C-alpha cells in the first residue's frame, strides 16, 4: 500500500526513490475502513441548501477503478453501502416532506457527456447529441432534454435503473467496467411557501466524472484513445474553471468543454460544491494517485463566491 492516511485531514504518499514523502491536506481524509454513512454525513450539510433555493454540486474525481461510482452510487441493492446520490435523494424527500407550510415539486434528468457531446440517458441509447442553450438569467439549459417528475426516492431509483442501461461502458486495461463518460444526475426542487407565496428553486447536481488516468496508463487504442482524449480535455477544462475562480478572474472559461458549460450554474458564485477525490492505494497506481491529490490540493481552498438564493415572490 503506497498511501498513508496519517490523520483525519492529511494523507501522505512516497515521492521519488530516496524515501522522500509528500503530505497533502484536505477538509477530510478517509482510509479504506471508512463507511459510506460516515462519508455522506460529513458532506451532507449542504443538502438543506437545495430545499432553501440554492444550487448544490457534488463531484467525484479520480482514476478509473478508484471508487468514484462506489462513492456516488454504491451497489444498487445494498442500503448499507448506498452512496452519496441515493442518500442525498432520500434526504431531499425527507426535508421537503417535513415542511408543512411548503409545497414542493421534484424533477429529475440524467445525461452523460461522452466525447464532448451530451446524450440524454432517459431518451434511449445515444439517439442524437443535445445542444446547450444559454438562458437570459445566465443559467445553461439542455435543449429537448427529457425531464421526469418524481414523487419518492423509489421513483428516482426506477429512473436511475432506466438510465443505467443506456450508459456508455467500454473495456480498458484499467477496469473491465470502466465508465467512459461523465455521468450527470440533476434534481430540480421547486418550492412554495403556502403562507407567504414565496417561491424557491434549487438544483442538486451529482457528477460521477470519467477516469482521469493518462493514455499511457490505460493502454487505450482506436476509439478508446479518442474517448481518453475527450475525457482529459474536459477534466483539464474543469481544472481551468477552478483556477480562474481561485484567481477571481472576471472571465471564467465555462465554454471550454460541454461538461463545464453544462455545470456552469453549479460551479460558479451561485452554488455550493463538494468534491470527492478517489485514490487507489496500490503502488502501481502511485503516479495517478499523486496527480489526483495535486488536482485536489489546487482546488481545496477555492471559494466559489457569495451564493445566490433563487427566490421569487
Descriptive notes:
- It is a single chain.
- With 313 residues, the chain is an alpha+beta fold.
- The protein is built from ten helices and 13 strands.
- Strands 4, 5, 6, 9, 10, 11, 12 and 13 form an eight-stranded mixed β-sheet that branches.
- Strand 1 and strand 2 form a beta hairpin.
- It is globular.
Topology (SSEs and partners):
Layout: E1 4-5, E2 10-14, E3 21-25, H1 36-43, H2 47-52, E4 55-62, H3 68-72, H4 84-97, E5 102-114, E6 117-120, E7 132-134, E8 140-142, E9 148-150, H5 153-164, E10 182-193, E11 199-208, H6 215-218, H7 223-246, H8 258-262, H9 264-267, E12 271-278, H10 286-299, E13 311-312
Parallel strand pairs: 4-11, 4-12
Antiparallel strand pairs: 1-2, 2-3, 5-6, 5-9, 5-10, 7-8, 10-11, 11-13
Features:
313 residues; 3-stranded antiparallel beta sheet; 10 helices; 13 strands; 31% helix; globular
Distance between the termini: 56 Å
Give me the count of strands.
Answer: 13
> How much helix, percentage-wise, in residues?
25-40%
Radius of gyration: 19 Å
Main β sheet profile: 8 strands, mixed
Number of helices: 10
Shape, please?
Answer: globular
Judged by helices, strands and strand pairing, the structural class is alpha+beta
The helix/strand order is EEEHHEHHEEEEEHEEHHHHEHE
Kindly estimate the percentage of residues that lie in beta strands according to DSSP.
15-25%
Q: Which regions are unreliable across 5 or more consecutive residues at pLDDT < 50?
A: 170-178
Give the integer mean of the pLDDT values. Answer: 87
Amino acid at each position: 500500500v503506497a498511501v498513508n492516511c496519517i490523520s483525519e485531514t492529511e494523507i501522505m504518499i512516497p515521492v521519488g526513490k530516496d524515501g522522500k514523502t509528500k503530505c497533502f491536506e484536505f477538509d477530510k481524509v478517509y482510509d479504506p475502513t471508512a463507511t459510506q454513512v460516515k462519508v455522506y454525513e460529513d458532506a451532507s450539510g449542504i443538502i438543506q441548501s437545495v430545499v432553501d433555493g440554492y444550487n448544490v454540486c457534488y463531484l467525484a474525481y479520480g482514476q478509473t477503478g478508484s471508487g468514484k461510482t462506489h462513492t456516488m452510487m454504491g451497489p444498487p441493492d445494498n442500503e448499507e453501502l448506498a452512496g452519496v446520490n441515493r442518500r442525498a435523494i432520500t434526504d431531499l424527500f425527507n426535508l421537503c416532506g417535513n415542511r408543512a407550510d411548503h409545497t414542493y415539486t421534484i424533477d429529475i434528468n440524467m445525461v452523460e457527456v461522452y466525447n464532448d457531446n451530451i446524450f440524454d440517458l432517459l431518451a434511449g441509447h445515444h439517439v442524437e447529441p443535445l445542444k446547450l442553450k444559454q438562458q437570459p438569467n445566465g443559467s445553461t439549459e439542455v435543449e429537448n432534454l427529457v425531464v421526469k417528475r418524481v414523487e419518492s426516492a423509489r421513483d428516482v431509483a426506477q429512473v436511475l435503473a432506466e438510465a443505467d442501461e443506456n450508459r456508455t461502458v467500454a473495456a480498458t486495461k484499467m477496469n473491465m467496467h470502466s465508465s467512459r463518460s461523465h455521468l450527470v444526475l440533476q434534481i430540480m426542487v421547486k418550492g412554495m411557501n403556502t403562507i407567504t407565496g414565496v417561491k424557491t428553486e434549487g438544483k442538486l447536481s451529482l457528477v460521477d466524472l470519467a477516469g482521469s488516468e493518462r493514455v499511457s496508463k490505460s493502454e487505450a487504442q482506436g476509439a478508446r484513445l479518442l474517448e481518453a482524449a475527450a475525457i482529459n480535455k474536459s477534466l483539464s477544462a474543469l481544472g481551468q474553471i477552478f483556477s480562474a475562480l481561485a484567481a477571481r478572474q472576471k472571465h471564467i472559461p465555462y465554454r471550454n468543454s460541454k461538461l463545464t458549460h453544462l455545470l456552469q450554474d453549479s460551479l460558479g458564485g451561485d452554488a455550493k460544491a463538494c468534491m470527492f477525490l478517489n485514490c487507489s492505494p496500490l503502488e502501481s497506481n502511485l503516479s495517478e494517485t499523486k496527480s489526483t491529490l495535486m488536482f485536489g490540493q489546487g482546488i481545496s481552498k477555492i471559494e466559489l463566491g457569495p451564493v445566490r438564493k433563487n427566490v421569487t415572490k
